[in-house]
Amino acid sequence: MHPKGIVQTTNEKRSARLGPSEDYAQGQADFEMANLRPERTGLPLIVFISQKGGARHDVRIKVARDARVRPSEMVTVAIRPSVRVVRGRLDAHDLALLTQWIDVNRDTLIDYWNGSIEYTEDAMNAIKPIKPGSA
User: Fold this and answer.
1) Do 45 and 130 contact (CB within 8 A), yes or no?
2) Per-residue DSSP letters for the chain?
3) Residue 71: which pLDDT band, with cuts at 50, 70 and 90?
4) Beta-bridge partners for 7
5) pTM, whole model, 2 decimals?
6) What band does 41 get if pLDDT is binned at 50, 70 and 90?
């Protein structure tokens, strides 16, 4: 059983029409991501965080409107050197809120990505929400 606000899910595999190198190039991970609900983040989005695993890129998170989303429908956001959408679309208001949340939690996100924070529960406990309507 996971602490409140944490749901573990394994990313779905891309459809059989994509080969392994195309799947990897799309940034799909074969490891678990932690889903952070709006009650935990203060955002109007579900935030998905993970450790680096075999990724070749720098720290990224994914966001979606609903936890039951296909990986291809998630918005991928890089957090270094600056917050930017690398796949998908976010409206300006949601991006501003997400940027504020990332700024508050940047060290935790980076440490979890790099494995300095080994356990998901420890990362969850370190996450700080933003106040709704603060951007």
Assistant:
1) no
2) -PPTTEEEEEPPPPPTTS-HHHHHHTT--SSEEEEE-HHHHSSSSEEEE---TT--SS-EEEEESSSS--GGGSEEEE-SSS-EEEES---HHHHHHHHHHHHHHHHHHHHHHHTSS--HHHHHHH--PPPTT--
3) confident
4) 35
5) 0.75
6) very high
Cβ neighbours, 10 Å, residue 72: 12
| Distance, CA of 36 to CA of 38 (rounded, Å) | 7
Tell me how long the chain is.
Answer: 135
**Cα Dmax for the chain:** 43
Burial grade of 38 (CB within 10 A; 0-12, 13-18, 19 or more): middle
Long-range pairs of 83-89 with CB within 8 A, sequence gap ≥ 24:
86/27, 86/60, 87/27
